[in-house]
Amino acid sequence: MSSVLPNKNKILTTIVAGLTICFASNLFAQSPVVSSGLELKDGYYPVYPTTAPAVGEQAEKIKRGQYLSQMGDCIACHTYVKAGTPPFAGGLPIATPFGTFYSPNITPDKETGIGNWTEDDFVRAMKEGRSPSGGNYFPVFPYLYFSKMTDEDARDLYAYFMSIPPVYQENKSLPFPFNLPGSRTSLWGWNLLFFFPENKMIDPEPNQSAEWNRGRYIVDGLGHCSMCHTPLNPLGAPKNRFYLSGTFIDGYWAPNIMKSGLDKVSVDDIANVFKKGELLNHAGPVAGPMADVNHNSLAYLTDEDQHAIGTYIKTVVSQDPLALKPSDAKPTLRRGKQVYVKVCSICHQDNILSAPVIGDGANWYRRLQSSGLTGLYTHVINGYNSMPIKGACVTCSDNDIISATDYILNQSLSRSQWRDLGSRGSEKYPTGGKATYNENCSACHTDGEHGAPKIGDKVAWDLLVKQNLDTLVTRVINGESHPKKGGCSQCTTNEIMDAIKYILRQSKVQGDYRLW
């Protein structure tokens, strides 16, 4: 967890630091790293571990338990893939301001794992956040969510973990002072404030469909989607009034996945995020922590469960801290200030996630020189690197984003910088042809996707230019046998023309088009 309070006192320090530990056991000892002997595929273990032979009902329990372990993405915290350790053997380092902590071994090894746990021990750990000896676990182990699962599902999980290969890998010590006796006592306060009021199973809503209820059970329970998609308070507990409204995690934006954020997509579209690893609206591949969740967890779910998740989250209505009443009026600096204060200041005021700071004229000047104003608009509206789509404001219109961008530049650039940029063309700081091509045209024209003529194919472009250059430009701008403006709705006519001329130059097409 990245959100922590300053060290106010010993109890608060213990609680906050504890939020960074993943399912820690009471006593840890230093250990060597055990190799899994498995080769990675695309950075992951290609398969889950084999299970011990079983028959009848026990075999069914193990099968259900494996599916539930995939639903809960247990392998993510309890496997140190980069070190090549076996699945579920723990050892994953978690860096915090208070030192480095390590996830524990949850294989059925009787000395270093959970092999001596009874079924009741396991159920209590999952649903009460307490160890076999009665000690409290730290809340980054998501017992806040796991407590909502049924006892039957918890027992099936136990059957699965008892059936995987035991791995002797000693757990590593907690740093001082969290390895001292009594350091977990303060967690009763956290539980009293945040866990006990939420510690209840999810009862089906009689007015909703079975699919909706199943989706809610996954999202709020073992799937613990809220853990990443709901903002947390400084003590690591979810701000429930902003349930599923989105937040930053590990340098990536976990988007708004409630009704307002998913209003324009279908349940099938949501399921395809899990199946294909592609962002909504074909905005590129899923990256960051969500890519791991997809690979280890959501891709294993049945079609029915994937659709159940989508069915449920599309109905969720909660408060969106970034919500604004959208405006389609012409962009203005007044509107830009409103959008900036409500949305953009979260990152651009204090360089959060390396966002360029408002007022840093040199930084914004370089960005305008390389991408142009249209390029900046496009980056913010469509998302770019760590910048989420529309700065994560799903209620903002394109003109709202343009207004905010103009406001930031107006507060950042000097008069001489404005004059220099303004002298580069009659339009507002146009993007050069190469930059426009790279950002908008290259996806199809570099490799000939969807039958598009490749850049550098002189024969193909000679034929197109012979039909008349102004006809070619008109077709691109109007979207005749081609996406309108190449998909760049913010691009000006001059920028489209510059991109076309760049392609022609790179393709060695002869003619006087350069003067056109």
3D architecture notes:
With 516 residues, the protein is mainly alpha-helical. The chain is 42% helix and 3% strand. The chain is built from 21 helices and four strands. The strands form two sheets. Strands 1-2 form a two-stranded antiparallel sheet. It is elongated, with a radius of gyration of 27 Å. The N and C termini lie far apart (56 Å).
Question: Which terms would index this structure?
Answer:
516 residues; mainly alpha; two-stranded antiparallel sheet; two-stranded antiparallel ribbon; 21 helices; 4 strands; 3% strand; disordered N terminus
Order of helices and strands: HHHEEHHHHHHEEHHHHHHHHHHHH
Beta-strand residue fraction: under 5%
Q: What would you call the quaternary organization? A: single chain
Uncertain runs are: 1-32, 424-430
Structural class: mainly alpha
Radius of gyration: 27 Å
Helix count from the secondary structure assignment: 21
Shape: elongated
Main sheet record: 2 strands, antiparallel
The largest sheet has its strands arranged as: 1-2
Span of the ends, CA to CA: 56 Å
What's the overall average pLDDT, rounded? 83
Q: Please tally the β strands and state the result.
A: 4
Q: Portion of residues in helices?
A: 40-55%
